[in-house]
Amino acid sequence: MTTGIVGKKLGMTQVFLEDGTVEHVTVVEAGPCVVTQVKTKAKDGYEAVQVGFGEAKRLTQPEEGHLKRAGGKYAHLREFAATDIDAVQVGQKVDASIFKPGDIVDVIGTSKGRGFAGVVKRHHFKGGPKTHGQSDRHRAPGAIGSGTTPGKIIKGLRMAGHMGVERVTAQNITVVRVDAERNLLVLRGSVPGANQGVVVVRHTATKGKGS
Asked: Which among 61, 89, 100, 135 is placed 20 to 30 Å from 71, CA to CA?
């Protein structure tokens, strides 16, 4: 089966563990997903399983042709590695049962958009002095040039600009509970993105301890 699933972040809450402690958790609607393509080394050069999630309102003709065998119209397609590629078939369903409590996972999502932000909010700059007549330097970036040499603004310099709406991966998150009947995953702590945002949950690629 696949090593991951596509889902939707529902929001945060808290649950009581068996020892009575309270755990802050995020609930993710994990799937159900459908296998839309099985990639093999012979045909594609590598092994992977492509799954689809969510109903698409409109697709192009190439997209409809690609998803014809899977028997549906899916808005989100993602690829995952598989534990046994020969046992996976197009049209097969993938649900939350591929995880169990105690598993360590990585969650990939799109961070919340913050619009145009200054350097203090975007890059955690200290800001300028607040005394000695500096009435307009509190949240300014300061000098951005380097003088005669190199005589230009260095590429990649941290400045004000659009903040958020970026791919973010939260690693080593512990699965607290799994409700396979309702396709729900309860994950410890927070995960990237806004509520109702699409997230990818996969078995962790690192060997760190769960959060």
From this structure: 100
Q: Is 126 a residue whose pLDDT tops 70?
A: yes
Answer for the pair 64, 75: CB distance below 8 angstroms, yes or no.
Answer: no
Distance of CA 8 to the CA centre of its chain: 10
b/e sequence 130-154, b meaning 16+ C-beta within 10 Å: eeeeeeeeeeebeeeeeeeeeeeee
Identify whether 150 is preceded by a cis peptide bond (ω within 30 of 0): yes
* pLDDT band (50, 70, 90) for residue 208: low
Token duo for residue 28: 């993710």
For the entire predicted model, the pTM comes to 0.82
